[in-house]
Amino acid sequence: MNDSVLLIEEKESVAILTLNRPQVMNSFNFAMLRALKEQIDALRFRPEIRVVIITGAGEKAFCAGADLKERATLTPIQVKEFIFTIRDLFMCVEQLNKPVIGAVNGVALGGGTELALASDIRIAAETASMGLTETRLAIIPGAGGTQRLPRLVGRGKAKELIFTGRRVDAQEALSIGLVNQVCAPENLLDECMKMASMICETGPVAIEQAKYAINYGLETDLNTGLAIESNAYWVTIPTQDRLEGLAAFREKRKPVYKGE
Residues 112, 114, 196, 245: which is the catalytic one? Predict the structure, then answer.
């Protein structure tokens, strides 16, 4: 087994980041948080990478949240640092200028579910289970769960899941809109790559601006959101990619986008 807490693989314009602590269900310690943050920050400035997939090593877990054995050794100040670090990381994931697909390959609890929530698209294995279980430890979700979950599944369902600390299986996650798709475990990465390949056929600047418009527009009233959308659209107008898209349509061929 590779000793790195984060494995990195690149293929077909896609970066696959694998949380690699399977012996502790890929739970987050400071080392893993910092390794993932370093990669996310680096990928922002790599235009040849169009999509990022995040998954977990092994068959049991995507990520079981914070490493509670490490947590037990931390001072209150260090706990605050941990929460700040993980919250900042997930904001960087959410605001990355390219799509992030969460490949939920198994158990995703606490911070694991919060990482999935910070991703743009979530595809889960049939064996996956998810939950914000923090209240069962007499704390609350601290890496965005109280904010992102209700925005995704609605206020009432989010309160039910957070107040009870209940886990949901993959099918229930799909039915409430927590994940986009469910598939057999052995097909998970293939399905994520299919999604990524479809995204890679589109215009890079358009994807970046669409993500920006959706993320920021949802936090405002409709008129402000429409203004954000208009400004994002204006960014795409002078691009070579837009002209290439029109030419390809006219010539009945696949466009070749360069992100320019």
Answer: 114
Q: Report the predicted TM-score, pTM, of the whole model to 2 decimal places.
A: 0.94
Q: What angle do CA 71, 74, 75 make, to 5 degrees?
A: 140
pLDDT in tens, 142-177: 999 999 999 999 999 999 999 999 999 999 999 999
The answer as to whether 188 is a domain residue is: yes
What are residue 26's phi and psi, to 5 degrees? 55, 35
Whether 114 sits among the annotated catalytic residues: the reply is yes
Alpha-carbon span 200 to 202, nearest angstrom: 5
| Number of domains the chain is built from | 2
pLDDT digits (tens, 9 = 90+) for 206-255: 999 999 999 999 999 999 999 999 999 999 999 999 999 999 999 999 99
Boundaries of domain holding 10: 6-200
The one catalytic residue among 64, 66, 116, 170? 66
Is 48 one of the annotated active-site residues of the chain? no
- Catalytic annotation, pick one of 111, 112, 144, 245: 111
In a domain? residue 117: yes
Catalytic residue selected from 103, 116, 134, 170: 134
